[in-house]
Design brief:
three-stranded antiparallel beta sheet, globular, JAMM/MPN+_dom, Cytidine Deaminase, domain 2
């Protein structure tokens, strides 16, 4: 994991890590995704919690999230800020790479660059899951943080898991709520998948998908 220079550092709370990992483990053959919620400082991003998002398609090599889902994150961040009595916002995005390396694809880097055009501090996290180690019965999980250069080259981020100092009870309430929202995503995706058999539905769905990664 040293093929590129370290840049911005990232702190992820254990609670946010648990939510993302649980979300990633819900689908072994399909990628999942969501957004990171927290705050930025000079050279550091703190990820307090995350918002798992419903996908418009279930594929092994990419994940698409609708504009409606992304827009809804603004209201959810306001709700989280109110509950925690501390301002937070969307600071990045995450997705999974089941059975493959955690390194970002060219589509991941382009998506990241698009986000950075709106916020230069925006970060990306990739979870590599269900990786079987060679000549070993053990599986491994890898987490990589990254940004994209103007030429779509990867900038590696230093990511560490660290507890939130002086955590209030409201923080744990928020974490539990976001963790439980994973099941809502799965339920809504099953409903969407059933509705996808309706005429012209797939065409209308493709028009609203703008969060794409591989």
């Amino acid at each position: 994991l040293t093929r590129c220079m370290m840049e911005r550092s990232v702190i992820v709370t254990p609670e946010a890590y648990q939510i993302m990992l649980t979300h990633a483990f819900t689908h072994e053959r399909e990628e999942i995704g969501g957004v990171l919620v927290g705050y930025n400082e000079a050279h550091e991003t703190s990820v307090i919690t995350v918002i798992p998002l419903q996908r418009t398609s279930q594929l092994s090599d990419r994940v698409n999230i609708s504009e409606v889902e992304l827009a809804g994150c603004i209201d959810k961040c306001e709700e989280i800020s109110k509950d925690m009595k501390s301002p937070v916002s969307v600071v990045g995005w995450y997705h999974s790479h089941p059975h493959i390396t955690p390194f970002p694809s060219h589509v991941d880097l382009q998506t990241q660059l698009n986000f950075q055009s709106m916020d230069q501090n925006f970060i990306g996290l990739i979870f590599s899951t269900f990786i079987q180690q060679a000549d070993s019965p053990m599986q491994m999980v890898a987490l990589v943080g990254f940004q994209s250069t103007s030429t779509q080259k990867e900038k590696r981020l230093n990511v560490r898991i660290q507890s939130l100092p002086n955590s209030q009870l409201s923080f744990y309430h928020v974490s539990c709520r976001q963790w439980k929202s994973i099941s809502d995503c799965i339920k809504d995706e099953l409903i969407h998948r059933a509705d996808n058999s309706l005429p012209d539905h797939e065409a209308s769905t493709s028009k609203c998908s703008n969060f794409q990664c591989e």
